[in-house]
Amino acid sequence: MTPRGAGRVVALAIGAQVLCASADDNPYDDPPPLQATAGIADCPAPKARVLTPEQARREAHQRVERGTSCWLAGRCEAGGDYKDDDRVNARVAAAIAAEPGFARSSVWVETLRKFVTLKGCVVDDEQARAIEALAGSIEGVKRVWLETKVVGPATR
User: Fold this and answer.
1) 108 bridge partner residues
2) What angle in degrees, to the nearest 10, is found between the helix axes of 53-72 and 3-20?
3) Which pLDDT value is given to residue 148?
4) Are 122 and 150 in contact (CB under 8 A)?
């Protein structure tokens, strides 16, 4: 089968999976936010990403298009950038958790398409930038989005 033909098979398989799983809140099995640190007691946990069946159907086209285009261009493996999100998420969370300087933060890691979003609370902008830099240095991370709130010294 040619690469173009294989891409069509992948696209059809993903599309069929989405239509079959459309009643699920997370039809793509995207990883939920993973807590890396818990040093700020009153920092609210982010909510897991939930898709309605209609949102899942709309997103299916984008995912298939991105994955097929990426694979045909030779920029990613079959399955696209989404397939390693759980491993990237775990690596980033573990790296943040292992860094003693981040113990006074409460940070969750959420990964989608190898784009990492850091959510939660930090003591200052310097800590936020350091966490962002560490996350960006982890293998498999394409981009880091910082959605943290500066709350001052840890309350724990």
Assistant:
1) 35, 119
2) 170
3) 97
4) yes
What residues form DSSP beta bridges with 109?
34, 118
Backbone angles phi, psi at 119, to 5 degrees: -125, 155
CB atoms within 10 A of CB 122: 29
Q: Tell me which long-range contacts 76-81 makes (C-beta under 8 A, separation of at least 24).
A: 78/6, 78/10, 79/10, 80/113, 81/113, 81/114, 81/142
Phi, psi at residue 10, to the nearest 5°?
Answer: -60, -45
- Ranges of residues in the chain with a pLDDT under 50 are 1-2, 4-23, 155-156
Question: Phi and psi at residue 105, in whole multiples of 5°?
Answer: -130, 170
Residue located via tokens 């491993």: 87
pLDDT at 127: 97
What is the residue-wise DSSP string for 18-33?
A: HHHTTTSSSTT-PPPP
Q: What's residue 24's pLDDT?
A: 58
Q: How does DSSP assign 41-64, residue by residue?
A: TTPPPPPPP---HHHHHHHHHHHH
Q: Which whole-number Å values give the CA distances from 104 to 21, 84, 99, 153, in the listed order?
A: 40, 29, 10, 7
